[in-house]
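Sequence, please.
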C-alpha cells in the first residue's frame, strides 16, 4: 500500500498529505512505525560501544520519529475530525501503543545504558538542554517502572494498557452523550430573548439536520448564549440539566469509568512507590507536591469565596426586583440574570459587542498583534492540503523571512469535533542529525459559523479564547532547540498556560481593540464608550468565576488523592461518583447543588485530557501571568523590549531548563499569588 503516513512528505515545509490520508492507512502505519521504533531502540541496546550521551540518550530522543509522525496526525484528527471508524481505530491502536511504550520504558538493557550516562553526568560537558534531556530521560524510566521487579513490571504494563483503553472510552462517552442531545424548537415564541445571531445559527443548525425551526445543542456556541439570553427559564433548565448530566447514567455512563480510572492511577502510583496519583503526577510540576497545590488553592479561595457569595447575593436581589421568584439563584438562571445585570449596570452585553468582532477581522488583528510584538508574519498557503474545508493554513515567517512553522486554524464546530478549544502540534520542533524540522502547529475552536446573511461573529469571550489558544500556538511556533521533548509547549503542566493566559490581556486593551473592532455592517469603529464599559466590566463576577475554577481544581485533587479503602467501598455504589464529588465541594458551594448533575462524568481535562492532578495549573499560571503582564504595563503593551524578553526567556526556551529558573530570568523575581487577587480586584 502506498501509505502517505509512512512516506516523507514531498509538500512544502513537510506538510502532511491530508488529501491522501484515509482511515485504512492508520493501522498499517501504526504497525510499521512501531516496528521501526523498536528496531531503532534495538540498535541502541546492541551498540557495542560504551554508553555516551550521543549514542544512547540523544539516539533515544529521536527513536520512534515515524511513530511520532503517525500519532501526531491520527490523535489530532481523532479530536477534530472523528467518526465511528476513527474511534474504532483508536481502540485497536491503544494497546499497540501501550505495548510499545512498555517495551521501551521497561527495557532493562536500554535503562542500563541511560543509567550509566546519568551516573557520569557531573563529569560530562553537557549544554543545559543536554543536561535536562539526560535528567528527564533517567527520571522518565524510573517513573515508568524501570526499577520494578520483573513481576511488578508485568503488572505495571497491564495497568497502563487498561488505563489507556478506559481513558479512550471516557472521551468517547462524553462525545456521544454531547451529540445525543438536541433541543428542537418550532414555535418562534419559545425563542424569546435570544438575539438574532443566536436564532440564525440555530436555524442553520436545523437546516443542516434537515429539520424545521431552530436547533440547539450542547456545543459551546449553542449552549452558552442560550443560557445567557433565553427568557424561557424552563428551556434554560432543560438545556442546563442535559449539559450537566452528560455521561451520567444511560448508555454513555461514565460513573464507573471515573472510579476505575482513578483506581488504576492509584495502583500505578503505589506500584511506583507513591502514596497517591497526585504525589506521582506533581513530582515533575513546578508545584513539586500536594502541599504547594493545596496552599495555592486555599490562599486564593479564602478571599474569593465570600466575595463570590456576595456577588451571587447581589445578583439574586436584582433578579427578585425584576420578578424572579426563586429562594436561591438556580444554576440555569445565573448566566441569564448575570447578562441582564451586566447590560443594565455596565450598559454592556455580548449582543452589543458581537457585531464588532467579525472573525476575519479578529484573525487579522491577532496575527497583527504577533507581528507588532514579535515581528512574525502569517502568509496564507491555500494550496496546501487540509483535513477539512474549513481549515486555514499559514506559513509563519520571522521578521527576517525565516520559516518558523506551519499554522493550521480550524474555527467552526461540526459533529466529528469535540467541544471546547485547544492548541496542538502535528509535528514538534526537532533537529535529528542536526537538520532542523520546524513545527506544524494547530488551534481548534468551536466559533459560530457564518450564516446565510451574516459572517462569523465572535463574542468577546470567544475573542479571548482565540487569544488564549494563539498564545499556546506562539509557544509552539517561536520554539527554538533540538530535542522535541524539550521544545515548544513541552513544559511543566503548571507552566504551559502562562503564554496563553498572558495573551488574553490584550482582549481588554483599548489601544489594541480600537485598531480592528469595526461594525461588520456599517464599518463604524467600536465606540470608545463601549470599550470603556468592557474594561470596567472585566472583573464583573470575577470572584464567582475564580471560585468556579478553584472548585474544579479541588475536585481534581480529591479524585487523585483517594485511598484504596474509599474506592473499595465505592465499588458497589452506582452513585459513588456523585457522592465523592459532593463531599469534595460541599464547603465551597456558591450556587445550589442540583441532584442528577455531575461535573466528573464529563470532566475531560482530568479523566482523558492530560490534566489529572493538574487542573490547579490554570490558577498557578494565572498567578505567573498577572505578574508577567505587569512588565508590559511598565514598558508599554506593544513593547518590543518586553516581548523580546518574553520570547527569549519563555517562548523560545520550552522545557530546556527548569521553568522556575526561566521565569525568574524573565521577570527577575518569583510571582506572588496576591498579584492575581489584586488584578481581579478581590483584594
Amino acid at each position: 500500500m502506498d501509505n502517505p503516513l509512512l512516506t516523507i512528505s514531498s509538500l512544502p515545509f513537510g506538510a502532511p498529505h491530508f488529501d491522501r490520508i484515509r482511515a485504512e492507512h492508520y493501522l498499517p502505519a501504526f504497525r510499521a512505525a512501531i516496528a521501526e521504533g523498536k528496531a531503532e531502540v534495538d540498535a541502541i541496546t546492541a551498540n557495542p560501544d560504551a554508553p555516551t550521551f550521543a549514542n544512547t540518550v540523544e539516539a533515544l530522543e529521536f527513536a520512534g520519529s515515524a511513530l511520532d509522525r503517525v500519532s501526531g496526525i491520527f490523535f489530532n484528527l481523532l479530536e477534530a475530525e472523528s467518526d465511528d471508524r476513527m474511534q474504532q481505530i483508536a481502540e485497536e491502536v491503544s494497546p499497540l501503543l501501550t505495548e510499545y511504550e512498555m517495551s521501551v520504558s521497561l527495557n532493562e538493557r536500554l535503562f542500563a545504558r541511560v543509567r550509566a550516562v546519568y551516573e557520569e553526568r557531573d563529569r560530562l560537558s553537557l549544554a543545559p538542554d543536554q543536561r535536562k534531556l539526560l535528567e528527564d530521560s533517567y527520571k522518565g524510566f524510573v517513573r515508568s517502572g524501570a526499577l520494578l521487579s520483573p513481576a511488578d513490571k508485568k503488572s505495571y504494563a497491564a495497568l497502563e494498557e487498561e488505563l489507556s483503553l478506559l481513558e479512550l472510552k471516557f472521551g468517547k462517552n462524553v462525545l456521544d452523550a454531547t451529540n445525543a442531545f438536541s433541543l428542537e424548537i418550532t414555535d418562534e415564541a419559545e425563542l424569546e430573548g435570544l438575539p438574532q445571531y443566536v436564532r440564525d445559527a440555530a436555524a442553520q443548525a436545523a437546516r443542516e439536520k434537515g429539520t424545521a425551526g431552530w436547533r440547539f445543542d450542547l456545543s459551546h456556541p449553542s449552549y452558552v448564549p442560550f443560557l445567557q439570553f433565553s427568557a424561557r427559564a424552563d428551556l434554560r433548565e432543560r438545556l442546563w440539566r442535559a449539559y450537566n448530566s452528560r455521561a451520567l447514567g444511560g448508555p454513555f455512563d461514565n460513573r464507573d469509568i471515573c472510579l476505575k480510572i482513578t483506581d488504576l492511577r492509584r495502583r500505578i502510583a503505589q506500584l511506583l512507590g507513591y502514596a497517591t496519583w497526585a504525589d506521582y503526577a506533581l513530582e515533575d510540576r513546578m508545584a513539586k507536591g500536594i502541599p504547594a497545590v493545596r496552599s495555592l488553592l486555599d490562599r486564593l479561595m479564602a478571599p474569593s469565596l465570600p466575595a463570590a457569595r456576595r456577588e451571587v447575593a447581589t445578583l439574586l436581589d436584582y433578579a427578585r426586583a425584576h420578578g424572579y421568584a426563586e429562594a436561591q439563584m438556580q444554576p440555569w438562571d445565573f448566566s441569564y440574570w448575570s447578562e441582564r445585570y451586566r447590560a443594565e449596570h455596565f450598559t454592556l452585553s455580548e449582543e452589543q459587542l458581537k457585531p464588532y468582532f467579525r472573525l476575519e477581522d479578529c484573525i487579522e488583528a491577532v496575527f497583527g498583534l504577533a507581528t507588532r510584538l514579535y515581528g512574525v508574519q502569517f502568509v496564507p498557503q491555500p494550496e496546501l492540503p487540509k483535513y477539512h474545508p474549513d481549515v486555514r493554513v499559514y506559513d509563519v515567517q520571522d521578521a527576517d523571512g525565516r520559516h518558523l512553522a506551519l499554522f493550521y486554524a480550524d474555527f467552526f464546530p461540526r459533529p466529528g469535533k469535540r467541544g471546547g478549544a485547544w492548541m496542538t502540534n502535528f509535528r514538534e520542533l526537532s533537529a535529528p542529525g542536526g537538520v532542523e524540522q520546524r513545527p506544524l502547529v494547530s488551534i481548534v475552536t468551536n466559533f459560530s459559523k457564518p450564516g446565510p446573511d451574516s459572517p462569523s461573529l465572535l463574542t468577546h469571550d470567544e475573542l479571548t479564547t482565540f487569544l488564549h489558544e494563539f498564545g499556546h500556538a506562539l509557544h509552539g511556533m517561536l520554539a527554538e532547540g533540538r530535542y522535541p521533548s524539550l521544545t515548544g509547549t513541552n513544559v511543566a503542566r503548571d507552566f504551559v498556560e502562562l503564554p496563553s493566559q498572558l495573551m488574553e490581556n490584550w482582549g481588554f486593551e483599548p489601544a489594541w481593540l480600537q485598531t480592528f473592532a469595526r461594525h461588520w455592517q456599517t464599518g463604524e469603529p467600536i465606540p470608545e464608550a463601549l470599550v470603556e464599559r468592557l474594561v470596567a466590566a472585566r472583573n464583573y463576577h470575577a470572584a464567582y468565576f475564580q471560585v468556579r475554577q478553584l472548585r474544579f481544581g479541588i475536585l481534581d485533587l480529591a479524585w487523585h488523592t483517594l485511598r484504596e479503602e474509599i474506592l473499595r467501598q465505592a465499588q458497589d455504589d452506582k452513585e459513588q461518583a456523585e457522592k465523592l464529588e459532593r463531599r469534595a465541594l460541599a464547603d465551597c458551594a456558591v450556587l445550589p447543588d442540583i441532584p442528577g448533575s455531575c461535573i466528573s462524568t464529563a470532566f475531560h481535562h482530568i479523566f482523558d485530557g492530560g490534566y489529572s492532578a493538574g487542573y490547579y495549573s490554570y490558577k498557578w499560571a494565572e498567578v505567573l501571568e498577572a505578574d508577567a503582564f505587569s512588565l508590559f504595563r511598565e514598558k508599554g503593551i506593544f513593547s518590543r523590549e518586553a516581548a523580546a524578553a518574553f520570547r527569549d526567556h519563555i517562548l523560545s526556551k520550552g522545557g530546556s531548563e527548569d521553568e522556575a529558573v526561566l521565569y525568574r530570568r524573565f521577570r527577575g523575581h518569583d510571582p506572588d499569588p496576591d498579584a492575581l487577587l489584586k488584578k481581579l480586584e478581590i483584594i
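The chain has 28 helices and seven strands.
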